[in-house]
Design a protein that fits this description.
Helix content is about 60%, strand content about 0%. It is built from seven helices and no strands.
């Protein structure tokens, strides 16, 4: 299991050419935002290896991470990638098309949330939705 306190070190190991801003080192979400920009820049340079590494790492964070890491992979990194791509005038779908299954589920959930189809990210994912379902207080099934 990947724990919160391991996240920044795992990012540094996966992307040795990514310089972590020392001011952000203790703030994983800021590091993930910087990483989203780095991935986009490398994508623009047609660095397919960095993009492949990113796709594999994001999947690993989703499948092996603790709850904090999984949320950070979605809200910190996937959402960051969506924003960076869109703000640069590029279609984030280019990146989404490369995602592995679990990461793709979360990407799609982000899309549905931003389209106001669901009330929160993950509401459409049954395993998550069941965990957050309101209690049945009237006894109805």
């Amino acid at each position: 299991m990947i724990h919160r306190d391991q996240l920044v070190a795992i990012l540094a190991d996966a992307f040795p050419e990514f310089a972590i801003n020392a001011d952000h080192a203790d703030l994983p979400y800021l590091v993930l935002g910087d990483l989203a920009r780095f991935i986009f820049e490398r994508h623009q340079l047609r660095d397919a290896q960095i993009v492949r590494t990113a796709v594999q790492l994001i999947e690993r964070l989703h499948t092996e991470g603790d709850e904090y890491v999984k949320e950070a992979a979605t809200i910190g990194l996937l959402e960051g990638i969506q924003s960076v791509w869109e703000n640069a005038g590029h279609n984030p779908q280019e990146f989404a098309d490369l995602l592995l299954p679990e990461s793709r589920r979360w990407w799609n959930s982000l899309e549905r949330f931003w389209s106001a189809e669901i009330p929160y990210v993950g509401a459409d994912l049954t395993d998550i939705a069941e965990a957050y379902a309101p209690p049945n207080i009237d006894g109805a099934q």
